[in-house]
Design a protein that fits this description.
Number of strands: 0
Shape: rod-shaped
Number of helices: 3
InterPro entries: CCDC17
Helix content: over 70%
Distance between the termini: 117 Å
Radius of gyration: 41 Å
Keywords: Coiled coil
Low-confidence stretches: 37-50
Strand content: under 5%
Largest sheet: none
Order of helices and strands: HHH
Mean pLDDT: 77
Protein name: CCD17 protein
């Protein structure tokens, strides 16, 4: 956890990273020794002097490096998913607002048409032809 925290906050000093790795390997060795004691009480505890061989240590370092990179990538992937969901939510809210505004504008246009038809009845009255000559007196 310390190494991961150090890396996440931008730490990159090789000496500190090596110390953190050494501490993690030592803790792992102690944990394995404790787990072994639980299984078989006759086993002696693993002492810090009995750390894994150099080849095993290199494999553990490589594995730890891969695990840390995987965690970093998982965090980055989660951040990208959250950003995408936020953008999608924002886009859907904007689309919903546009739809509501469009419906309101269409309703206003309908009301204006209705009002215009009511205030100008002569536009819709039947148009009769004008008489050609004046009517004859009786």
């Amino acid at each position: 956890a310390l190494r991961l925290s150090y890396l996440r906050t931008g730490g990159h000093d090789p000496a500190i990273l090596d110390q953190l790795l050494h501490l993690q390997l030592e803790a792992t060795a102690l944990e394995k020794g404790t787990a072994g004691l639980r299984r078989d009480r006759r086993m002696a505890p693993v002492l810090p002097a009995e750390l894994p061989s150099t080849a095993t240590r290199r494999l553990d370092e490589a594995l730890l490096t891969v695990e840390l990179e995987n965690r970093r990538l998982e965090d980055e992937l989660l951040a990208l998913k959250v950003r995408r969901e936020r953008r999608a939510d924002a886009g859907s809210r904007v689309a919903q607002q546009h739809t509501e505004e469009l419906a309101q504008l269409q309703a206003e246009v309908g009301m204006l048409r209705f009002h215009a038809e009511q205030t100008r009845p002569w536009l819709h009255a039947p148009v009769l032809p004008l008489p050609i000559a004046a009517p004859l007196p009786p």
